[in-house]
Write a structure and sequence with these properties.
Blueprint: E1 34-43, E2 49-57, E3 63-70, H1 81-89, E4 94-99, H2 116-129, E5 133-142, H3 144-153, E6 160-166, H4 172-175, H5 185-191, H6 205-209, H7 217-220, H8 226-233, E7 257-262, H9 268-281, H10 285-289, E8 291-296, E9 307-308, E10 311-312, H11 321-334, E11 346-350, E12 355-359, E13 368-375, E14 388-390, E15 400-404, E16 437-440, E17 448-462, E18 468-476, E19 482-491, E20 510-523, E21 528-534, E22 560-565, E23 573-578
Parallel strand pairs: 3-4, 3-5, 5-6, 6-7, 7-8, 8-11
Antiparallel strand pairs: 1-2, 2-4, 9-10, 11-12, 13-14, 13-23, 15-22, 16-21, 17-20, 17-22, 17-23, 18-19, 18-21
Length: 583
């Protein structure tokens, strides 16, 4: 949840701009000079004053407003507010960049998310009442700035007209199914402590992430963070989290939304879940129709690069996102028919094929969900084991076993701080470990597109009263490169959900339903699907210490003996979404 990136602004034009009704390429040209007013004060309902920078067209008159509220300091390069402000103001908008409460130049105390609903409401209504405003207000932003918009929209400010939400985190337990925040969030807490942005390079993050108990990880990072300790005091989901939960309240959000994310965004489930939620549970048929989903081959910094790790996605992977956003705002804030609402509601990039596709819905209706069952002779341990995947159901097969030691967790390949949790990395070095079970399919005899939600049904037992199970889906290239697509996990005590914790009985077999989020990848001829099963992905997720004790409060650890079953009575399979070519 607590990560931010606004995406480098692109220079390439991919999305087609219709010329109907006078809106063509020339309509996107700047027509105004821009004037900037720095550090204007805006009073909230409780008297606390927040600070805004205002980018206005250099002309008298009233204009629609685009509001972006940030904890990352409105005047810094982070977030791109100077560039965005100039872009939109030159095209007939007032762009307002605001430091949220307790950050940057704004007064008050910053507590993550807790004040964003009321403050967002008051900020939107302030924008609507200004002499340079038409009264129509749109909002824009990524990550925290996207979550801020959702929390604000629940308050239903009268002048909120539309939103562009990018890389928006899902609800807390969806993002953090261990019941605790990722250890990597500690770098975010340091970054935004106080009013200024702190230098994360000053900290030895691997040693901080390894610190136990999790409750005092803030002091290990040189920080006193009461909020971090509050989070640890509330594992799973309880009433303390209710103000931050929005994905059960779609009917309260009454505006058209553009949802934007990337297949390698570590928050990508927010965009897909929110699009599904608004198109199926929106307050009216019209509102359900007025939603867009844009998914690129991007990390958390959407539209920032055509290249991730060893993978090049081609020149069309970066688009003119500004122009796409302009067309959206022109339609909803100016009433101009830009043609954007006549286009398909879903636009997705198919990796591997490296092409954009337009679809009518998400998930794609013509998808064929194929269950790939786990098979082995009981020795699927490591890349060199005998694990296979096949659409053929398992029969009488021996179980696979491994030891999970929290002192030596399976690594998740990532940068050392919160900014990006993994990409299309080659996981063969990790697959050398005996505590990683590896199951691989036969090569595909033709190019095959897998695009949609991934789920793992796992039959497993443990010697512990609480433990974790992880799954990861990969595209194995003919030369052996094992490209991570996406992954997920389950904490045994939360197998029935974040609001229902119960320990397991050692040795008893349980069926775990594990959400591996989404991917959209064309596997070339000769490629294979692979599934990894293990019990840790550190430091993306905190380690289960296998003790069954209160989460986050002790340094005690013990090893767990894990058993993965795949027989007729206890099937285990991964559900793969295979999308046929359009007729």
């Amino acid at each position: 949840m607590f990560r931010q990136a606004f995406g480098k602004l692109a220079v390439q034009l991919l999305l087609i701009v219709p010329c109907a009704l006078g809106w063509g390429a020339d309509a996107s040209a700047p027509t105004y000079s821009v004037k900037i007013e720095f550090s204007t004060r805006v009073k909230m309902r409780d008297g606390v004053e927040l600070s805004v920078d205002i980018y206005r067209p250099g002309s008298d008159g009233r204009f629609p407003v685009i509001l972006s509220r940030t904890p990352y300091n409105k005047s810094t390069a982070r977030g791109g507010h100077l560039e965005l402000g100039r872009y939109f103001a030159a095209r007939g908008y007032v762009y307002v960049a605001m430091d949220v409460r307790g950050r940057g130049d704004s007064d008050g105390t910053f507590t993550p998310y807790r004040n964003e609903g009321p403050d967002g409401y008051d900020s939107i209504e302030w924008c609507a009442q200004q002499p340079w405003s038409t009264g129509k207000v749109g909002t824009i932003g990524a990550s925290y700035l996207g979550y801020d918009q959702w929390i604000t929209a629940l308050e239903q400010p009268p002048h909120l007209t539309t939103m562009i939400v990018m890389t928006t985190p899902p609800d807390p337990f969806v993002e953090s199914p261990t019941g605790l925040q990722s250890p990597t969030y500690m770098s975010w807490h340091l970054l935004i402590s106080g009013h200024v942005l702190h230098n994360l390079a000053a900290v030895d993050w691997p040693s901080v992430y390894a610190h136990l108990p999790i409750y005092t990880m803030d002091t290990a990072a040189g920080l006193d963070s009461p909020y971090w300790r509050q989070v640890v005091d509330h594992p799973g989901i309880d009433e303390w989290w209710d103000p931050l939960i929005y994905q059960n309240k779609y009917e309260r959000v009454r505006v058209p939304i553009m949802h934007v994310s990337g297949w390698y965004d570590d928050e990508q489930a927010g965009a897909t879940m929110n699009y599904i939620g608004m198109t199926t549970k929106g307050a009216s048929p019209e509102l359900r129709h007025n939603q867009k989903l844009l998914m690129g081959p991007w990390p958390h910094a959407v539209n920032s690069t055509t290249h991730l790790g060893d993978i090049e996605f081609g020149p069309t992977a970066v688009i003119d996102l500004n122009l796409y956003e302009l067309r959206w705002f022109d339609h909803w804030l100016k009433g101009i028919d830009t043609g954007i609402m006549e286009e398909s509601p879903v636009r997705i990039f198919v990796m591997g094929e490296n092409k954009w596709h337009d679809e009518k819905e998400w998930p794609i209706a013509r998808t064929k969900y194929v269950d790939y069952y786990l098979h082995s002779k009981g020795h699927a341990n490591s890349l060199y084991g005998d694990g296979t995947l096949s659409p053929t159901p398992s029969a009488d097969e021996p179980a696979d076993r491994y030891t999970y030691n929290p002192a030596m967790p399976v690594p998740f390949l990532m940068e050392p701080t919160y900014a990006q949790l993994g990409g299309p990395d080659d996981y063969r070095p990790v697959e050398r470990r005996d505590d990683v079970l590896v199951f691989t399919s036969e090569p595909f005899d033709k190019s095959t597109t897998i695009c949609g939600p991934l789920r793992l049904k796992l039959s497993a037992a443990s010697s512990a009263t609480d433990t974790d199970f992880t799954g990861k889906v990969l595209d194995v290239w003919p030369e052996g490169f094992a490209q991570r697509l996406y992954d997920g996990m389950v904490r045994a005590r939360y197998r029935e959900g974040g609001n229902h914790a119960s320990l397991i009985t050692p040795g008893q077999v349980y069926s775990y339903d594990i959400d591996l989020w989404n991917t959209c990848q064309q596997l070339g001829k000769g490629h294979r699907i692979r599934l990894e099963v293990s019990s840790s992905a550190f430091p993306k997720y905190d380690r289960n210490q296998n003790t069954g004790e209160e989460l986050g409060k002790t340094a005690n650890i013990k090893s767990a003996e894990q058993t993965i079953y795949h027989d007729a009575k206890h099937p285990s399979f991964v559900r793969i979404p295979i999308v046929p070519e359009q007729p």
